[in-house]
Amino acid sequence: NGSNDILELAARAFLTAGCEAIYSQHAFAVYPLVTQATGATGVVVPAKNYGHDLPAMLAAITDKTRMIFVANPNNPTGTLLGKDELFEFLKQVPKHVLVVLDEAYDEYLSAANKSEAIGWLNEFDNLIISRTFSKAYGLAGLRVGFGLCHADIADLMNRVRQPFNVNSIAQAAAVASLADDDFVERSYALNQAGMVQLTQGFNKLRLEYIPSFANFVSFAVKSDTQNAAEVNQKLLQKGVIVRPIANYEMPDYLRVSIGLFSENARFLEVLEEIINK
Ligand SMILES: *Cc1c(COP(=O)(O)O)cnc(C)c1O
Question: With a 6 A CB cut-off, is 132 part of the ligand 1 pocket?
């Protein structure tokens, strides 16, 4: 049921009251949710430039740590960790700590930035990689994701998995979509173009944004006359739906998904109207 299910299975299999899971400030909201549901303690490490601070996450490891969640790219900030720093980090994580590396947006990365973590599985028995068909493949409503990890880790996760968690229609669609490279390439190209369109628009409106490697951008609304929540309400009234991210400790930011050219244009037009009022 989506890569969300992988995150939850990992937490249910390996976390319990009295142990700790580490994740970054501003990281994907599901990490605290699945951690808290097991009774384990979540340890939030302050972000660095809105991204993961890996040395600080290493320093937060204790005898009680069982799991570290890393989103790369991260949602809702769109930040990306370099491959070298991630590899060095994995080398330093003690073997009794599992690293859940969430790569939900990998298909939106350029060839040079794409993850090589699958090749690292031989080296790290404590690595769980999660991927999804929900983003670049466009199958979010069908709920299919997958995890890659050592067979012994998969065995333990399977013991807490519902036997029929992924339905047969979703599986058929996922398998078919694996053969549709054209679609993923078009998603990638559309996203690249939309990213340029939106960031140029933000520059023109003099709005600060966090450079993003995913299919959305988070931008700041810090005017004296209206805050992000108010701008969000006005966008809604115009039929434009963005994501307020105050629950990610980012009350001054809104996250906008990259859409079709005309949708991006409409968003920028309405935003300009609201900002300049
Ligand atoms: C969307 C998302 C997921 C999970 O999506 P599924 O639809 O459950 O596969 C996981 N991690 C991040 C960072 C996401 O943004």
Answer: yes
Q: What is the pLDDT of residue 225?
A: 83
Q: Tokens representing 263? A: 């949708």
| Structure tokens, 46 | 């302050």
**236 and 256 in contact (C-beta within 8 Å)?**
no
Average pLDDT score over residue span 74-96: 98
Find out whether the beta carbon of 271 lies less than 6 Å from any atom of ligand 1. Answer: no
pLDDT, one tens digit per residue, over 145-160 is 999 999 999 999 999 9
Contact criterion met (CB below 8 Å) for 140 and 166:
no
pLDDT higher than 90, residue 31: yes
* Residue 21 β-bridge partners: 42, 67
Give the number of the atom of ligand 1 that is nearest the alpha carbon of residue 132: 9
Q: What is the DSSP string of 192-245?
A: HHHHHHHHHHHHHTT--B---SSSEEEEE-B-SS-BHHHHHHHHHHTT---EE-
Q: Which residues pair with 170 in a beta bridge?
A: none
The ligand 1 atom nearest the CA atom of 143? 7
Q: Which of 75, 80, 142 to mutate to test the pocket of ligand 1 (most atoms within 8 A of CB)?
A: 75
Rounded CA-CA distance 221/31 in Å is: 27
Q: What pLDDT, on a 0 to 100 scale, did the predictor assign at position 222? A: 85
Q: Determine if ligand 1 sits within 6 Å of the CB of residue 2.
A: yes
Is 264 a residue whose pLDDT tops 90?
yes
Q: Which domains does the chain have, with CATH numbers?
A: 2-177 (3.40.640.10), 182-276 (3.90.1150.10)
